[in-house]
Amino acid sequence: MSNRKPIIAGNWKMFKTVSEAVSFFSEIKGKAEVDGVESVICAPFTTLPALVEAAKGTSIAIGAQNVHFEDNGAFTGEISGVMLKDLGVKYVIIGHSERRAYFAESDEIVNKKVHASFKNGLLPIVCVGEKLEEREAGQTKDVCKVQTEAAFQGVSAAQAAEVVIAYEPIWAIGTGKSSTSEDAQDVIGYIRGVVAGLYDQATADAVRIQYGGSVKPNNVAEYMGQTDIDGALVGGASLEPASYIALVEGAK
């Protein structure tokens, strides 16, 4: 059994107003705080100040869903690591497949954002994963290797140990389809090996790797039972308080 602390991160995507976010938090407070599990909510930028305030005195961490790689400048509509750190945010999701697919984020941009996060004292949750056609062509591991190696370019071993990697097969996100726990374990174990190759076994053993893709309260324990799966990055099932609480409890 590893000494890596399980981490359940809810990714709200583009859902919830400020009042809805505050109402949600009041319902999970105390209930989604489970010994030995780290609970994280990654919410839209507009809700972050209110959530950080609501989370004071709790063990629940707040994360952003994106960050720009420059600290400031003429980047209309973007939010920097400096701004997020100032708010009191702990985590930031980087390279989610939706960002890669709809907003043309490349491996190089993902890497720049990882560096920007560390520069500003934020912890990156780096997403990697294959498309359906890549999976069917037997390229799952190759894709994950390329994305992982690119994300960690120029990142020190000490920083790497702090990164959370989220393996999200793109075909399983929001589709109701999910990778079997054995399949997920196979790929996540492989990704851990990639990290070991970049650094060393101790660093690879420290990195927490989540599974993401149609994780629900009724299947989270199955994933968590696998040797290398350290948590879940959860979309839809993190939007309801009862469901989110059940996910955290299922990660024990």
UniProtKB/TrEMBL annotation:
It is found in: Cytoplasm. Pfam families: TIM. Its EC number is 5.3.1.1. InterPro entries: Aldolase_TIM (IPR013785), TIM_sf (IPR035990), TrioseP_Isoase_bac/euk (IPR022896), Triosephosphate_isomerase (IPR000652), Triosephosphate_isomerase_AS (IPR020861). Substrate binds at N11, W12, K13, G174, S214, G235, G236. PROSITE patterns: TIM_1 (PS00171), TIM_2 (PS51440). It comes from the Bacteria. GO terms for biological process: gluconeogenesis; glyceraldehyde-3-phosphate biosynthetic process; glycerol catabolic process; glycolytic process. The active site is at H96 (electrophile), E168 (proton acceptor). One of its GO terms (cellular component) is cytosol. It is an enzyme of class 5 (isomerase). Keywords: Cytoplasm, Gluconeogenesis, Glycolysis, Isomerase. Involved in the gluconeogenesis. Catalyzes stereospecifically the conversion of dihydroxyacetone phosphate (DHAP) to D-glyceraldehyde-3-phosphate (G3P). PANTHER family: TRIOSEPHOSPHATE ISOMERASE. Belongs to the triosephosphate isomerase family. This is Triosephosphate isomerase. It comes from Paenibacillus endophyticus.
